[in-house]
Write a structure and sequence with these properties.
The chain is of the alpha/beta class. The protein has helices at about 25-35, 55, 65-70, 75-80, 95-100, 105-115, 130-135, 150-165, 180-185, 190-200, 215-230, 245-255; strands spanning about 10-15, 40-45, 80-85, 90, 120-125, 140-145, 170-180, 200-205.
């Protein structure tokens, strides 16, 4: 039985000031977690320069039509959607010069066409604050900004948050790639401290992981917490330092992550 009661698609642009902070991975994993809550979710890749949401989702070989085909009337939205998992779909990005022809109005019309069939639309936009950012932001009603605990990423996230505020969008914050051992050792700021610095509500925290960042059983937990907080208003925030406290945590910090 579906748990969502949203009667229109809730559009959320996922942004970052700095490239390489894991914005696309956060988009993919949060979308999957929302779908597992029983929501129908569509992920829209609006990064037409460095688009790789299909790759993160393992769907690069399934692309037949993309967003440019939709706005050029070569395909209907439903034809272009790729089913990733139950209740989770992807609208792939356009490639090359075709992507530059996509406007904010195009994306708005696509989002409108997805209501009421979908509960959430997560729009993955380019890093930074250039034209691609503006195109994606003005298409959506809500925003998530992704950062890491590094000073350069926090500073760039602050610029993005200030711009989002100028668009009258109040973003939520995801702190990604948080190392629990460094957090316990006081070598990096906590997510709460970063949230305070940026004066932005914290949606959740995801830990630094080794190897390919997928949606394994262990890695699901942070995004499940984010999905429950976003959709159900839960207070839960994943604690990446939990395994590094106490006697065994000290041993783990000393001899390996």
């Amino acid at each position: 039985m579906r748990q969502c009661i949203i009667v229109y698609v809730k559009s959320i642009v996922v942004t970052s000031g700095k490239g390489g902070v894991g914005k696309t991975t956060v988009t993919a994993c949060l979308g999957r977690a929302l779908a597992e809550l029983g929501c129908r979710v569509v992920l829209i890749d609006a990064d037409f320069g460095l688009n790789n949401l299909d790759v993160v989702l393992g769907a690069e070989n399934s692309v037949v039509y993309d967003i440019a085909d939709v706005i050029s009337n070569r395909a209907r939205v439903r034809q272009a959607l790729i089913e990733i998992a139950h209740d989770l779909f992807l609208l792939p990005s356009a490639h090359g010069y075709l992507g530059e022809r996509v406007t904010a109005q195009n994306i708005k019309l696509i989002l409108k066409s997805l209501s009421p069939s979908f509960d959430y639309a997560l729009v993955d936009c380019p890093a930074g604050i250039e034209a691609g950012f503006k195109r994606a932001v003005v298409s959506c009603e809500h925003a998530i900004t992704v950062t890491t605990p590094h000073i350069s990423a926090i500073r760039d996230a602050n610029k993005v948050i200030n711009l989002l505020t100028s668009y009258r969008i109040k973003p939520m914050l995801v702190v990604n790639r948080m190392r629990g051992d460094l957090l316990v050792g006081g070598k990096i700021p906590s997510a709460a401290e970063i949230s305070d610095m940026l004066r932005t509500e914290l949606l959740g925290v995801a830990p630094e992981t080794d190897g390919v960042y997928g949606f394994t059983k262990i890695q699901k937990k942070p995004f499940e917490a984010m999905a429950r907080r976003l959709h159900l208003g839960a207070d839960e925030i994943f604690d990446p330092a939990a395994g590094y406290r106490g006697f065994f945590g000290a041993f783990k910090r000393r001899f390996g992550r």
